[in-house]
Amino acid sequence: MPIVTVIGDGQLARMMQTEAIELGQSIKLLAGSRDSSAAQVCHDIVIGDYRVWEDVERAVQGAHAVTFDHEHVPTEFLNRLSGMGYSVQPQPAALLYAQDKLLMRQRLEKMGAPVPEYSAIESVEEALAFHDRVDGAVCLKARRGGYDGHGVWFPGSREDLRELVSELLGQSVPLMAERKVALVRELSAMCARTPSGQVAAWPVLESVQRDGICVEAICPAPGLSDDLAAQARDLSVKVATELGVTGALAVELFETTDEAGNPQIFVNELAMRPHNTGHWSQDGCETSQFEQHLRAVADLPLGSTRPTAPVTVMVNTLGGEEAPDSPIAYRFAEVWRRFPSVKIHWYGKEWRPGRKLGHVNLCGYDATAEGIAETRKIANLAAEYIVNGKWADGYVGKPENS
Amino acid sequence: MPIVTVIGDGQLARMMQTEAIELGQSIKLLAGSRDSSAAQVCHDIVIGDYRVWEDVERAVQGAHAVTFDHEHVPTEFLNRLSGMGYSVQPQPAALLYAQDKLLMRQRLEKMGAPVPEYSAIESVEEALAFHDRVDGAVCLKARRGGYDGHGVWFPGSREDLRELVSELLGQSVPLMAERKVALVRELSAMCARTPSGQVAAWPVLESVQRDGICVEAICPAPGLSDDLAAQARDLSVKVATELGVTGALAVELFETTDEAGNPQIFVNELAMRPHNTGHWSQDGCETSQFEQHLRAVADLPLGSTRPTAPVTVMVNTLGGEEAPDSPIAYRFAEVWRRFPSVKIHWYGKEWRPGRKLGHVNLCGYDATAEGIAETRKIANLAAEYIVNGKWADGYVGKPENS
């Protein structure tokens, strides 16, 4: 079986290893430390820094394909690896559009994909001009390096914008701005593509965000019209194809309404790797995004994306403000005792407030609005219990041995 | 999360690691070699021999629970570990009945479970007397150490039996004999039980055997009456409870007909660990047998055993007489190109004729006889292609890029 080097040691790499085992592979990892989430569960590890060429070079030795669990590897390293004949997936020319938000906007606009009004920001004057153009509805973004709400700002006034841009440009942060969209909700359209050009799309889902972090995903997106679902799915396939993306692609979308009050979508972000909004596929789909990603980067035919349940809900377990008193195994036990269908995925990371420590998936077999609400309620209760050691609905538990 | 030591390095331990990763665990392994199936994909490995006390002792250091991927660990070691305070799951007193077929028969008979007529065989005379008692329908078994058809004999005549028993007793192989059952088919009733006594049963399935090796499993068993299914399921729960089994339990059953022509079941074997007939649960059930086993041995509440498809078929890929010319990744690709829903599980083992190298699972959404036949056909075609690099139905493939 092909050897796949994964650069990155977080939970995405960890969950790739899960699937690699079943495919008869074992991934080779470039990890920052031996106790990182992925390094805990892999055998073949190179300890090093993805920003150091020599470390990257050691990690790719013998690899049939090189892939990533984040977008932060320097583009020059990726080009160098490509030049040496390594199969870098996604290829640097595609990955660029997940790394640089301004280039992404420009490229998507060129292909006719719906993007919010935007502008490069290289001076305070440009920022203020954009502010006036969009009537103050400004979202300012670092072009590179942002994630989970980092690198995104919503300045409250013209004066705030002036100060912020001045400060960030002073720190040499390359910037862009876009019109803040009047959001109905966020959607995610995911697909995977092989170097040979095969594409397989998953159902379009709803993603619930809090403070710029995905906290919940519901697949398929409830109440989404067939028409808009097809439009979003086709868009993800088009982006994958025209940009030459390989592996998993997440097209994060804003759903809004046009002037006539009809639903409309805009592209928010692209991620070219397994994505938080695709975790539902581990328990709710014939092929999980992690298996699909490994197959895609090795140019193997893609698997069926058929859902195995009418609805699947994923809820992240983010570290709470305080670490709970009870041991984690106790909290898992309480969740499983109350809800035997809840699937827990845990990343082996140390608790830290706001940190993604794991997620839960729950399949629902009733796709009515009430059924979906019930599935969401249970998944959220479970996730909150894992975080806080408390039932948000005041449940006091069953007597022992009941 | 609890640390679980697994004694054994085969595919069962490997597939436990898959689930351990998602549960936030990483299992500690006692492995015979670093390139064994499970050791390839684990981080925390003790290289040693399960028949050497010092090696076992090293492997269990710090473990919250100790479990197995085979039954061959000497009982005295297990007792010693228990005596030292280790949580050995299943406990030696239960495991004994999976290790010794005569004790198992005696114990099951005592609890009123249906077993074929049997006898201890300590002399040639006893063997011949048993032969006459069952009109020559003799199945001779080694009491300990058999697997996959090893340690089971069907002597063709009284004379063959005399020679065989004489030879085996001469080699000090402890023996028993039982009446050969007029088989309709084989079934498997699986459940898991925690040390606290919670039991969860999976649907009863049909197991297809060739030369004493499981080659296919169909879950649920097609055409099984609700009554017989309940009887088999209740039997597995009873065995688990009365014997104090912990972890996964497979009760392998013979389905036959009584004198009135009604279906009847007899217990064939017990396995106290994840079992080949439970592999379907990886893709066809909310909780796989590997996850359930890990939860059970750590005394955590059990997961839902709800199937996610009307029927799931598992087919083993056993090494063929000759290794195929094509690389394994090419064969996987051909299978996936033709059948995108086929899930391949591969054990990372070297090819050897008859060796269990992997298996495929396929969910079917049509539970009619024709639908089940079609799902079985596809799963078998896929497995055969992986083994031989040839389509058994003469399929010649699609043109490139179609």
TrEMBL record, chains A, B:
Q: In which pathway does it act?
A: Purine metabolism; IMP biosynthesis via de novo pathway; 5-amino-1-(5-phospho-D-ribosyl)imidazole-4-carboxylate from 5-amino-1-(5-phospho-D-ribosyl)imidazole (N5-CAIR route): step 1/2
Instruction: Supply the alphabetized keyword list.
Output: ATP-binding, Ligase, Nucleotide-binding, Purine biosynthesis
> A Gene Ontology MF term for this entry?
ATP binding
- Subunit details: Homodimer.
GO cellular component, alphabetical, reads: cytosol
- What is the originating organism of this protein? Corynebacterium lactis RW2-5
Catalysed reaction(s) here are: 5-amino-1-(5-phospho-beta-D-ribosyl)imidazole + hydrogencarbonate + ATP = 5-carboxyamino-1-(5-phospho-D-ribosyl)imidazole + ADP + phosphate + 2 H(+)
Question: Which InterPro entries does the record cross-reference, listed alphabetically?
Answer: ATP-grasp, ATP-grasp_carboxylate-amine, ATP_grasp_subdomain_1, PreATP-grasp_dom_sf, PurK, PurK_C, PurT/PurK_preATP-grasp, Rudment_hybrid_motif
Q: What class of enzyme is it?
A: ligase
Instruction: Tell me the protein family, please.
Output: Belongs to the PurK/PurT family.
Stated role: Catalyzes the ATP-dependent conversion of 5-aminoimidazole ribonucleotide (AIR) and HCO(3)(-) to N5-carboxyaminoimidazole ribonucleotide (N5-CAIR). Catalyzes the ATP-dependent conversion of 5-aminoimidazole ribonucleotide (AIR) and HCO(3)- to N5-carboxyaminoimidazole ribonucleotide (N5-CAIR).
Q: Where is the ATP-grasp domain?
A: 105-298
Quick check: keyword Transmembrane helix in the entry?
Answer: no
Family annotation (PROSITE patterns): ATP_GRASP
Q: Name one GO biological process term.
A: 'de novo' IMP biosynthetic process
Enzyme Commission number, as recorded: 6.3.4.18
Which residues participate in ATP binding?
101, 141, 178-181, 186, 268-269
**What is this protein's record name?**
N5-carboxyaminoimidazole ribonucleotide synthase
